[in-house]
Amino acid sequence: MKRRNFFWFSLLFLANCTAATSKGNNTKITSEKLRFSVTDTLTLEDLQRDYGALRTALEEILEKKVEFVPLGSYTAAAAALQLDQVDFVLTGPSEYVVMRARTNAVPVIALTRPNYYTVISVSANSGIKSVAELKGKKVAMWEVGSTSGHLGPTKMLMDAGLDPKSDVKILLLKGDGLPALRKGNVDAWGGSAVKYEKFLQDQGLSEKDLPLIAKGPLLPDDLFVANSKFDDNFIKDISSKLLANQDKLLTSLLSVEEGKYKGSRLISTVDSNYDMIREVYQAIGQGSFVQ
């Protein structure tokens, strides 16, 4: 998923949710309509363009009308769930742990991404051969809260024995990160393998020009989550129906940006699969977002 500035999230969430109250997991479904959104899609036009086929598939599989709910900002999903403005959300790992902490959102089923992992790249003439050698260096990343562009590479720094708050200088440059590395303005870049490969292709470069010093493991899956007001039987029913009809659902996602769901599968998931995200938030001093 596209990721968010979580410092702005804290202000947005407090402004919208201070009066909200949490609900128990005991509400049965009486409505024939499900309100649905995707956390990286801001407008109704975007939802219809990118996920119209998914909505049609969901309506056929679940035998319910599915209504798009544009969230208006990347950070509004948790507020919308807590205020009972949305029932069902397709989201990324970092957004999920925030939604879970604020609303007890229920993971329904995970959506794998076969190429969803992080890499760390350096300049060909840098002499840097390992992540541990980045101590004291400048490392470009995407933006705060990005699973593949911030949390993933930060975890790789941590695994190499580096403190992300003191041992390296992390610069959040979004799309300017790889150009900055190529110009020598930073010592390394950490981010999505897909973005790295696309940059090389677009610039006519090879891995020899910006060699990789590390490849991370697959990151936690994207997932469908449900409003915590729904009872356990409803969640199990949705999960089983999606699994039984996953070919139809996955076909509806093939046109989504950068082919990110090509080769994906639907699999069962549990909340503990996202503890890596929580660990990194703790390490960077933002644990309050996920507690």
TrEMBL record:
<protein>
    <submittedName>
        <fullName>PhnD/SsuA/transferrin family substrate-binding protein</fullName>
    </submittedName>
</protein>
<feature type="signal peptide">
    <location>
        <begin position="1"/>
        <end position="19"/>
    </location>
</feature>
<dbReference type="Pfam" id="PF12974">
    <property type="entry name" value="Phosphonate-bd"/>
</dbReference>
<keyword id="KW-0732">Signal</keyword>
